[in-house]
Amino acid sequence: MGAGMTNDDKILNRIFMITERMIVFDGLDDVLNHITKTAISLTQAEAATLRVFDLATGTLNIIQSHGLTEGFIDQPPILIGEGIIGTVVMTGQPYFTADVAQDKLCKNADIAALEGIHALLCVPMKTRTGTLGCITVYRRTTNPFREHDLLLLSIFSSEAVEAIEKARLIDELKKQATLDPLTGLLNRRALMEDLAVELDRASRHSTPVALLFVDLDGFKQFNDMHGHILGDKLLHDFTQLLRINCRKIDHIGRFGGDEFIIIAPQTTEPGAASLAEKLHQALANHRFLTSSAVTSYRTTCSIGIALCDVGVTKSAEQLLREADDAMYQSKRGGKNRSTVSTP
Questions:
Q1: Is 256 within 8 Å of 213 (Cβ atoms)?
Q2: pLDDT of residue 25
Q3: What is the largest CA-CA distance in the chain?
Q4: Do residues 246 and 262 touch, judged by C-beta distance below 8 A?
Q5: Which long-range contacts (CB under 8 A, 24 or more apart) does 311-319 make?
Q6: In the Cβ-directed half-sphere of 327, how many Cα atoms lie within 13 Å?
Q7: Is 51 helix (H, G, I), strand (E, B) or coil?
Q8: 15, pLDDT greater than 70
Q9: What single DSSP character describes residue 23?
Q10: Phi–psi pair at 51, nearest 5 degrees
Q11: Helix (H, G, I), strand (E, B) or coil at 292
């Protein structure tokens, strides 16, 4: 910094240097971690929390923190308008106090006391349409925060909001690049990438992999009779059946149209056949919505199973081709059945 720089110039230069660094982060977790640590550095605090409003619960939840114990972080969520935090978010106005234990607005004074917190400064994170949440910094002494701390944190808060929105946009774009928009399952590209990874892992750890190619029977006729909206509804509901019947380690995706793929790591032929049978039973017991108010629809599926056993090397394309061929054997055999590939 130049010798002739005023104190205000130094503050603004410091803000610029710190916020400029945020553009190098492309992951939301990294951005949030940087924001909390920088808030502490700017205000010479000892700890910080970052809270955002959760649409699902209607509460302000801690999504990032630094310098605090688990007991403090695990405190109950705060409602809009509740305590210091909720009031700051509701009013959009910052708030600071030298001792939260003596502040009537403080909701969780007992939790703050256990943490040894005294001084607090909270600023809202404002977007163009409202308030996203807030940044709060803490000191374990009664050394109060000053107006210049408020100025620094308020300026930084505006930059933080922009960084969060950009990081969220990047995360959303990444999801869109890998997920099918209708079902929320993996798309074809992501499936092939995951299959290649699982086959490589299976080869290194000497474990089997099974691939199930699932095709809904009669879907085109259903679409023609009941319309594309209800066709989409059927695909959406079938997706839920897949999620319910597959394991957490399985990769589920929509290959295209009414074709779905299940990558089942650590699975042999009996396990794959058992999963296929579960899907047949789930469809047999499920009634899908139709254009008629008095009738529902039952459907079936044809499944092809391909295996990569221990000691066998196959590419993702080869295993997919085998499963696809086996699925068409199920179609030709009368549908509503599973066929294991015999390459």
A1: no
A2: 57
A3: 86
A4: yes
A5: 311/206, 313/203, 314/199, 315/196, 315/199, 316/192, 316/195, 316/196, 316/199, 317/192, 319/195, 319/199, 319/209, 319/211
A6: 22
A7: strand
A8: no
A9: G
A10: -115, 145
A11: coil
